[in-house]
Specification:
424 residues; alpha/beta; 7-stranded mixed β-sheet; 17 helices; binds pyridoxal-5'-phosphate
Length: 424
């Protein structure tokens, strides 16, 4: 199936007489005929449902669709993008371990990695994603277990050179984990470029209608954990909490994602509600359609902004001459995403005035939604960062993150034009 077809058809195939639309299994638990049957499920000897914290048919169908869209072997849904990012690292790192991460990432992930995970004894080194491979390699230590980056960084819009990152990771015997939230699998499939694990905040384009916070992890099945067994004992040695199962032996290509479900979901429990997964699935059905319109509209808005004399700079990889134009063309030939960042002449003060003068575009924390929305990262999402950290994350004080929706592009442009005039 091609990607537009997968958006509609993947994940759920009803049998004779079953519901055409993915049912919402709003049930915490599942019934069995015998003690023995249920026991086998607890030992991971048989597939089946017993408790929604570990698995639920609605959640699984949507996870399978996302895995298929990304070209992975299996996926798992989480209750938020934050938990997906956390689990993706925590599944292979423990106290005393270390990982390397691009500086250009979402502010929430930055806090998670640099503050909260440090408290768990997991250390991170941030690297400039545009640095040469040797410089990124220099951040690796003997206890480094992963490399992490974002396809298109939120909100800096830095495009990741996925092949460069994959090579550095693989040269050091560790997986590359890519947050593909902004590009979505419609525009970029990081696994095809060497990423081993893909994570998402499904809250954004995948849901697309601002109804449900959620996340996903997709396992490519490509990373050879056994070839680096000493680095990943959690996957390659017996897990006493499951009667000594060895994930790589029992689950092969799905070792990583099975361990994430069987241990992290079991113990930490960040599951989405089946009802949210149902809504996410509706969003996924139109993802390909919507992404095309987001990209088309964003291109028009970016071109308008780049020609406007009240705008000091525009960052959008679809623009000729943008710093990331060539990388975006390589990894996302059909368009990147609908998010543009730009600065208004007059700095922080004019930026705030501009935002307050918009009528159609709404000031919300949210981004990547069907509705046009706008945010000032320095006073909102990134306000915990000091000036130096802001700079490293590619966020200037005048940066406006403008998320172009799927309304008529001319209405969006008129709204911007009026607000720019009012901000002077
Ligand atoms: C929003 C976002 C997250 C966090 O996701 P939530 O669903 O808000 O928890 C992670 N990564 C990126 C790139 C995001 O945009």
């Amino acid at each position: 199936m091609r990607i537009d077809t997968k958006c509609i058809q993947s994940g759920y195939t009803p049998k004779n007489g079953e519901a055409r639309i993915l049912p919402i299994y709003q049930s915490t638990t599942f019934k069995y005929e015998s003690t023995e049957q249920m026991g086998r499920l607890f030992d991971l000897e048989e597939d089946g449902y017993f408790y929604t914290r570990l698995a639920n048919p609605t959640n699984d169908a949507v996870a399978a669709k996302i895995a298929d869209l990304e070209g992975g072997v299996a996926g798992m849904l989480t209750s938020s993008g934050q938990s997906a990012c956390f689990y993706s690292i925590f599944n292979i790192c423990e106290a005393g371990d270390h990982f390397v991460c691009s500086t250009s990432i979402y502010g929430g992930t930055y806090n998670l990695f640099s503050v909260t995970m440090k408290k768990l004894g997991i250390d991170v080194t941030f690297v400039d994603p545009d640095a040469p491979a040797e410089e990124i390699a220099a951040a690796f230590r003997p206890n480094t277990k992963a490399l992490f980056g974002e396809t298109i960084a939120n909100p800096a819009l830095v495009v990741l050179d996925i092949e460069k990152f994959a090579k550095v990771a693989h040269d050091h015997g560790v997986p590359l984990i890519v947050d593909n939230t902004f590009a979505t699998p419609i525009n970029c499939r990081p696994i095809e470029w060497g990423a081993d694990i893909v994570v998402h905040s499904t809250t954004k384009y995948m849901d697309g209608h601002a109804t449900s916070v959620g996340g996903a992890i997709v396992d490519s099945g490509n990373f050879d954990w056994e070839a680096h067994a000493d680095k990943f004992p959690g996957l390659t040695t017996p897990d006493e909490s499951y009667h000594g199962v060895v994930y790589t032996e029992r689950f092969g290509k799905a070792a990583y994602i099975t361990k994430a479900t069987a241990t992290l979901m079991r113990d930490l429990g960040s599951i989405p509600s089946p009802h949210n997964s149902f809504l996410l699935n509706l969003g996924l059905e139109t993802l390909a359609l919507r992404m095309r319109k987001h990209c088309e509209n964003a291109q028009k808005v970016a071109e308008f902004l780049s020609k406007n004399d009240k705008v000091s700079w525009v960052s959008f990889s679809g623009l000729e001459g943008d710093k990331y134009h060539d990388l975006a063309k390589k990894y996302m030939p059909n368009g990147s995403c609908g998010v543009i960042s730009f600065g208004v002449k007059g700095g922080r003060e004019s930026a705030v005035k501009f935002m307050d003068s918009l009528k159609l575009a709404a000031i919300v924390t949210h981004v990547a939604d069907a509705r046009t929305s706008v945010l000032h990262p320095a006073s909102h999402t990134h306000r915990q960062m000091n000036d130096e950290e802001l700079k490293a994350a590619g966020v200037t004080p005048d940066l406006i993150r403008f998320s172009v929706g799927i309304e008529d592009a001319d209405d969006i442009i008129e709204d911007i034009e009026n607000a720019l005039r009012a901000a002077q």
